[in-house]
Amino acid sequence: MSTRTTEPPFMATRTAVVARASDLAAAVRASRRELTIAGVVVAWIAAGVWLDSYASIWPQRALGIVTWIVLLLILRGERRDVRAQVAIVILVATAVEYTASGWLGVYTYRLHNIPWFVPPGHGLLYLTALALGRSQLFALLRRPVIFATIVVGGAWAIWGLAFAPRNDAFGAIVYLCLLRFLLVGRAPLVYAGAFLICSYLELMGTSVGTWAWAPHDASGLLGVGNPPSGIPGAYCFFDAAALAGFAGLLALVDGFGARLRALPLRARLALR
Known about the structure:
By secondary structure, the protein is mainly alpha-helical. It has helices at 9-30, 32-52, 57-75, 80-103, 118-134, 136-140, 142-162, 169-184, 188-208, 232-262, 265-271; strands at residues 107-109, 211-213.
């Protein structure tokens, strides 16, 4: 007669914890590039906003050039579709910047311009969100990452409505947009990554005065925090545009390239 030995409960718990830790370590190793991208961008944001807080116009423009270099260096290791997504984000976000800041005055940069680092900065933000969202680490922690994003973002929105020094109804509304992206969007982990990196950027930038949000939105009806609590939800619209539009952009580029190659050599040289 055989006897079956059962593992004591505490041993079973210990085994499960060890296995989970092993899975996490493996996920971190597999996510080395993605975490490196996030680390580089986090460090550059901290350095950039600090340097900009002391910079006049030409040093600020130099920061913009360096930001472009950082973006292009990271993009060298990315696939063609990711580069197309970054291009879409830069185009859409830059148009929004000139509308929301330059025209409507919803927020204002320190030197009352659109700094040169803003367009490539949006590209870096998207790359970070995408890198985190595609990482093995986020995939392993999918449920807690999404849940934590919802809870932290919701708590921040409630604080902005009920307890902040100035009312932040606008932040609560854009938090609802973030909530929608997290619950039914095509890439919720990318949007969770956007929440992390964009919240960090906004808190850093407003704390040192790189930019400041107006007390009310353009209509004058909604209070706005500095920064708005749910502002990562607005950044998610840029991310969604990139994810939805990159295939069309690549098809357009490929079609133009095919037509160009079909031209006679003399016509191609004339185009140059």
